[in-house]
Amino acid sequence: MNVVTARLVLEEAVLVSVDGTQGSTPRDIGAWMAVFAGNVVGTIGGGHLEFQAIDEARRRLAGAPGDSVCQYALGPSLGQCCGGVVRLRFERVGAADIPALEQRLAPQLSPLALFGGGHVGKALVNVLSSLPFAVTWIDSRDEIFPPQVPASVTCEHSDPVHAAVADLAGGSRVLIMSFSHAEDLDVVAACLRRQRERGDLPYIGLIGSKTKWATFRHRLQERGFADAELAQVTCPIGLPGIAGKEPEVIAVSVAAQILQLAAPGKP
User: Are residues 90 and 116 in the same domain?
Assistant: First the structure.
């Protein structure tokens, strides 16, 4: 039960969701917030649009009538210069709506496999846990995982570690950063073999320098992988131009690259 449905056990709310957009708008269709008498959960983009929507939602909580969908122009009247148009749907919800809302408000998460529980791996889990990814965190060392991890993260012990590649969810983005270059090489090779068979891993990222990748390329060629197959591996990982080597800096850079590649119109 999430924070919205847990609170609905005690009091009603008005669910405000973006029902349609035109032009430049703060959030896309599907964004939502739940307005209770004393607080708000979620956001439709902030600014005067959100303030006005909260006021309208609380007016309806108090019993005032209104259309189920209202249109707002993001111009001077709202003090926002986006210039677009947003249609907001207002729905009064309570305890009886909890089962439907649990499914409706659940975040849509993309699968991501993270091989390695070192400093960068831990920093990445902290960053990815707030992003739309369901993370499978894999290491050959069972004791490496912290006692508590975010709800969107599943820890998996695999020895040998590359054996876990076969069972990854289709469409997984893969990040490889184990404690051992030998393990890294085996995981990359397993990913490339899976690509031969299924072609369902849209991103294979390997931590390391250009020198490391040159060595890996040679060893993978010796294992029979062609240049076209090796081109599916990203190494180094992270956005170009971010030079910091602190785990947290690397984590933000890598997460940004994954989000960039997962943008609309990309696989």
Answer: no
